[in-house]
């Protein structure tokens, strides 16, 4: 049976990026930055502004991942977190987290204004609302945390939406924007400053030897540098055991046409599954952008079920007439919900990492870029301790780490024990799933035109069995979040090699 189809992503449809070549020769530079999203591009540009010779390498095309497929909120309101952060880390660190992200927002606001970047930037208040009695206390506590930390906001008994809501906490002075034209501006500035960009360049390893770092691509090319920064979703150098300290979640978004005056503001529900609501402008037309339905990669219902749930929500609450765009994104989360930004591990002086942004990468990426630039230049930064990857908190790290690794073990075992009876010839057009080929488990997808693609479903990271994602036509690893196309090509790490093609 065929699956429902949707248009392509809004973000990549509205602003194209220049194309850059692949690394085809060994070279040397001062700093190598790995990752073609907002964190990588911003870090590379800030270092180039400081006079550093910088190379930026990305496994795919610039912005061809989560940054290009994002709801693009510029906000320090990252769900119900401030009451939790006060409990785990204390008021000082919770306040630092807020201030760091507001500085990130201000950085973007100032650059957009000074450079005149046309990126749909708009000032908006951010709301977390609930219609569930079980979440009322949590929303009230979050507002009390705002007051303790000096965050401008209010507690409201209604919201400017037709969605039912009994209580909401509002953070004032937030914003939204379209990241691709903004990052195109930064990319062009980086190149003007002498920066070099290499796309389609998968980095296989990063090694430190004294004051020299060697970055090696999958095809054996090397970049020799003084410092290397991994801004990819999953860190390339895994000396800090990040595969055990991060878990990956999928989330979904649709852009719809809806009648009447569309609301101002950015909204997210406190209860699960989350519902995120805001307005975007595309081609002079205002659309509603709806997101949510988060789950661990490879560990939930087929992807199309989540798109259908968002479509039902759009029709019921807003009278949506049709879906204009849809996409999904993947994000890594640290055990204590704070990003890892800094030296990759205590023993490495010249290798840095930025990861674990937990769906809030717009402001956090700017925080990361500024912090990493300061660390590389030997300058003090008041956020260094807060985001240090070498930190460890007994509460909540121990419990979360144990839970996550039990989950990984369960997925590894269950994937190997699953018995599959279906054969490739049983698949209809535009259908994929596990099959049996010559007595062994495999994965197959039949295109709408009838072409069959068969792969070994053993993830190339640590051997878990990948699961078929009907919504995006991808193979997703339930253990550590690696993702592959239906052909078996790597989309997201930590895996670096493609799935084995069987036919």
UniProtKB/TrEMBL annotation:
> Cellular component terms, GO, for this chain's entry?
cytoplasm; membrane
Coiled-coil ranges per UniProt: none
**Entry keywords, A to Z:** 2Fe-2S, Disulfide bond, Iron, Iron-sulfur, Metal-binding
What GO terms are given for molecular function? 2 iron, 2 sulfur cluster binding; metal ion binding; monooxygenase activity; oxidoreductase activity, acting on paired donors, with incorporation or reduction of molecular oxygen
Q: Where is the Rieske domain?
A: 419-503
Alphabetical list of InterPro entries matching this protein: FAD-dep_OxRdtase (IPR006076), FAD/NAD-bd_sf (IPR036188), Rieske_2Fe-2S (IPR017941), Rieske_2Fe-2S_sf (IPR036922), Rieske_Fe-S_prot_C (IPR005805), YhfW_C (IPR038010)
Q: Which superkingdom is the protein from?
A: Bacteria
* SUPFAM superfamilies per UniProt: FAD/NAD(P)-binding domain (SSF51905), ISP domain (SSF50022)
Its recorded name reads: FAD-dependent oxidoreductase
Annotated source species: Cohnella xylanilytica
């Amino acid at each position: 049976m065929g699956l429902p189809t949707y248009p392509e992503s809004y973000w990549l449809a509205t602003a194209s990026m220049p194309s850059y070549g692949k690394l085809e020769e060994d070279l040397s530079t001062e700093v190598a930055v790995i990752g073609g999203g907002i964190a990588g591009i911003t870090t590379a540009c800030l270092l180039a502004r400081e006079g550093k010779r910088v190379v930026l390498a990305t496994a795919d095309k610039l912005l061809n991942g989560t940054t290009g497929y994002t709801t693009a909120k510029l906000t320090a309101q990252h769900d119900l977190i401030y009451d939790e952060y006060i409990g785990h880390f204390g008021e000082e660190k919770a306040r630092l987290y807020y201030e760091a992200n507001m500085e990130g927002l201000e950085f973007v606001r100032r650059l957009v204004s000074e450079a005149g970047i046309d990126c749909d930037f708009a000032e908006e208040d951010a709301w977390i609302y609930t219609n569930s009695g079980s979440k009322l206390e949590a929303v009230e506590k979050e507002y009390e945390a705002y007051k303790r930390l000096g965050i401008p906001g209010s507690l409201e008994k209604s919201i400017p939406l037709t969605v039912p809501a009994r209580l909401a906490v509002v953070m004032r002075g937030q914003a939204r924007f379209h990241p691709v034209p903004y990052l195109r501006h930064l990319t062009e500035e980086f190149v003007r400053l002498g920066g070099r960009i290499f796309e389609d360049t998968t980095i296989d390893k990063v090694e430190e030897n004294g004051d020299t770092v060697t970055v090696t691509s999958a095809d054996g090319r090397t970049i020799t540098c003084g410092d290397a920064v991994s801004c990819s979703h999953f860190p390339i150098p895994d000396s800090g055991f990040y595969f055990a300290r991060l878990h990956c979640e999928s989330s979904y978004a649709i852009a719809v046409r809806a009648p009447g005056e569309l609301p101002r503001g950015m909204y997210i529900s406190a209860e699960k599954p989350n519902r995120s609501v805001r307005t975007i402008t595309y081609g002079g037309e205002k659309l509603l952008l709806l997101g949510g339905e988060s789950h661990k990669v490879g560990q939930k219902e087929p992807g199309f079920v989540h798109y259908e749930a968002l479509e039902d929500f759009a029709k019921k609450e807003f009278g949506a007439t049709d879906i204009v765009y849809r996409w999904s994104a993947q994000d890594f989360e640290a055990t204590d919900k704070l990003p890892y930004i800094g030296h990759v591990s205590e023993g490495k002086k010249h290798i840095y990492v930025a990861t674990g942004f937990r769906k809030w990468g717009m402001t956090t990426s700017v925080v990361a870029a500024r912090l990493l630039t300061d660390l590389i230049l030997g300058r003090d930064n008041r956020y260094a301790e807060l985001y240090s990857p070498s930190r460890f908190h007994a509460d909540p790290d121990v419990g979360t780490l144990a839970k996550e690794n039990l989950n990984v073990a369960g997925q590894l075992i269950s994937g190997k024990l699953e018995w599959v009876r279906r054969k490739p010839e049983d698949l209809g057009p535009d259908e994929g799933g596990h099959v049996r080929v010559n007595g062994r488990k495999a994965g197959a997808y039949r295109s709408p035109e009838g072409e069959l693609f068969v792969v070994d479903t053993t993830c190339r990271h640590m051997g878990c069995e990948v699961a078929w994602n009907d919504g995006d036509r991808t193979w997703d690893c339930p253990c550590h979040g690696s993702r592959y196309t239906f052909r078996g090509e790597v989309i997201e790490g930590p895996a670096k090699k493609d799935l084995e093609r069987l036919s």
